[in-house]
Amino acid sequence: MHIVADQSAAPAAIRTHLGAIFVSLELSKSTWLVTSLLPGGGERMSKHTVRGGDIAGLLARFAQLREKAQVRTSETFPIVVIQEAGLDGFWIHRVLEHEGIESHVVDPASIATSRRRRRAKTDKIDGETLVRALVAYKRGEPRVCAMAKPPTPEAEDRRRICRERKVLVSERTSHANRIKGLLFAQGITGYDPLRRDRRERLDDLRMGDGRVLGRQLKAQLIRELDRLELLFEQIKSVEAERDALLAADVADTPVALLLDLKGIGPESAAILYTEGLFRKFDNRRQVAAYAGLAPTPWRSGSIDREQGVSKAGNPRLRTTMIELAWLWLRYQPESALSRWFRERAECNAGRVRKTTIVALARKLLVALWKYATAGVVIEGAVMKTA
Questions:
Q1: 3-class SS string, 94-122
Q2: CA-to-CA distance for 291 and 313, rounded, in angstroms?
Q3: Residue 144, CB half-sphere, CA atoms under 13 Å: how many?
Q4: How many of the other CB atoms lie within 10 Å of CB of 375?
Q5: CA separation for the pair 147, 111 (Å, rounded)
Q6: What is the largest CA-CA distance in the chain?
């Protein structure tokens, strides 16, 4: 005899009467997919497309959703919108907030998905997933997703200087390496294109077989030097603008306090502030997690091991902190953090030393955050002499 489990005649409806219209946006260059969940409609979600970048069409669609919900329930509901953080930045979020619409930007990696090896993924499925995450978030479910905190337009514009300098320095390195590679293929070593006499030395170079540089090769090298010198001028201009911006800050600001510490220069101080410390953090765990320096344990049953840092944070801040940790050991050798590092790394080398420097970077970031925001002096730290 077969036993059939009792099943409900209809699937349980989602509790959507939370006093709002929930909308998700799947953004692309050509089209925006608008997925909405209206009160009184059960679990049915409607989908519409809007031409990419058409804010007027998007607001018109929102007005139609309000009208449809009012006809259905005889009530007027606000609209709550969610979108993923991506290439579109935060301009759509700011436009919606300016129109009085509640908007949220979510970290897409924080939304739970199926762990099947081959799972279906379409804009339609992603739009519905975003709506369900938004409903759960507004319902108050803990850790359902991680909402991003968009910076102010002023803070976003302020950090462009350090980011542009990083790109220019990377391009400078690429051009210098290209010049060295062209010369190495002809048996020439020891030529540094970053020296001031780079053009004069170019005339004295000889190939590995004693011949002078070919006409076309020399012309190519001259063009590479032209690009390299243009980058020198642009880097100098960006650094001057950065220094002027730092000099405009009055005393006792976070940047000024960071610059007082020995071993922290203008670039490190600017990156620390514009990429991280301008934000408000509630505790040290949030600071470490934002920089991607938080540990990620794997504990299940008898398994207990560390997977390393999460790296799910600001990569520019994380890179700067690891570089600054090495500089801290050099310029602040008597500080408590440097002594802590030496106690754990003096008898080890290789991988243990590398993992310990990451731990030092996390501790140093927390210490600098406390120092810059609350004035907590770092134990044993030395200030710069006037």
A1: HHHHHCCCEEEEECHHHCCCCCCCCCCCC
A2: 5
A3: 14
A4: 9
A5: 10
A6: 98
Integer-rounded Cα Rg, in Å, for the chain is 28
Within 8 A by CB and 6+ apart from 232, the residues are 172
Query: Would you give the distance in Å from CA 362 to the centre of its chain?
Result: 17
> Which runs of consecutive H residues, i.e. helices, occur in 249-350?
254-259, 266-272, 284-290, 315-331, 336-345
CA distances from 264 to 3, 79, 165, 330, 380 (A): 73, 46, 17, 11, 15
Q: 213: buried, middle or exposed (CB in 10 Å: 19+, 13-18, 0-12)? A: buried
Is pTM beyond 0.85? Reply is no
**Neighbouring residues of 324: CB distance < 8 A, sequence distance ≥ 6:** 263, 264, 268, 272, 361, 364
**Please, which contacts does 357-360 make with residues 24 or more away whose CB atoms are closer than 8 Å?**
357/322, 357/325, 357/326, 358/293, 358/308, 358/309, 358/322, 358/325, 360/325, 360/328, 360/329
Instruction: Report the amino acid identity of residue 268.
Output: S
Q: What is the pLDDT along the chain (386 residues), one digit of tens a residue?
A: 443 334 344 444 445 457 899 999 999 999 999 999 998 776 789 999 999 999 999 999 999 999 999 988 888 999 999 999 999 999 999 999 999 999 999 999 889 888 887 888 899 999 999 999 999 999 888 889 999 999 999 989 999 999 999 999 999 999 999 999 999 999 999 899 999 999 999 988 999 888 999 999 999 999 999 999 999 999 999 999 999 888 886 666 788 899 999 999 999 999 999 999 988 899 999 999 999 998 888 888 888 888 888 888 899 999 999 999 999 999 999 999 999 999 888 776 666 888 899 999 999 999 999 999 988 999 999 998 86
d(C-alpha 178, C-alpha 228), whole Å:
11
Helix axes 351-374 and 336-345, enclosed angle (nearest 10): 170
Name the β-bridge partners of 304.
299
What DSSP element (H or E) covers 25? strand 21-27
